[in-house]
Amino acid sequence: CDPDWEIGPFEPIGGKDTPGTANDCIVVPPEVCGDPYTSTYTIQGSGLASALDGTEVATEGIVVGDFQVGGKNGYFVQDAAGDLEAATSDGIFVYSTSVDVNVGDHVRVRGTVDEYYNLTEITGVSQLWVCSSGNSVAPTALSLPVADVTDFEPYEGMLVTFPQALVIS
Questions:
Q1: d(CA 137, CA 39)
Q2: Rounded to whole angstroms, what are the CA distances from 124 to 12, 94, 150?
């Protein structure tokens, strides 16, 4: 955008280009934490797969699980408030190791929604901001047993706790 040149419509003889005339340049401000975003529960939706698969989104949340090292190559982000809707998950996996994050970081992530082996995740992360640190999310109680493995879908990517005693055998 050159403020000293304005391009007008080309005409057969003597177009309307105006060198030296001020140009009305539109400058898009950079994206920042707190700008409008697509919530994790909207990305997840209420079905087994996201309706936004293949869509570029920006989302924000608190890191509730950091698995950037050790083979998972990413971390889980959860909406701090959630939507209080039992059918939708408030968390999502972010497949990225480009910026080191820690549990408790409030992050803003821009990337593409992807269904990978029945896990909704954000891939192709193009931008990541650490908005703040030292945050927490209360775990959601999850009781066992469940009737079907798909009963876990509304908890995908979320920090959960089990209120009953568990035994591994």
A1: 15
A2: 46, 9, 27
pLDDT tens digits, one per residue of 83-130:
878 889 999 999 999 999 999 999 999 999 999 999 999 999 999 999
Tokens found for residue 103: 């549990």
The two three-digit tokens of residue 10, written as one number: 């080309």
The H or E element spanning position 40 is: helix 40-44
Residues in the chain: 169
Report the alpha-carbon distance of residue 64 to residue 56 in Å, rounded. Answer: 22
pTM, whole model, 2 decimals?
0.80
Question: 3-state SS string over 78-113?
Answer: ECCCCCCCCCCCCEEEECCCCCCCCCCCEEEEEEEE
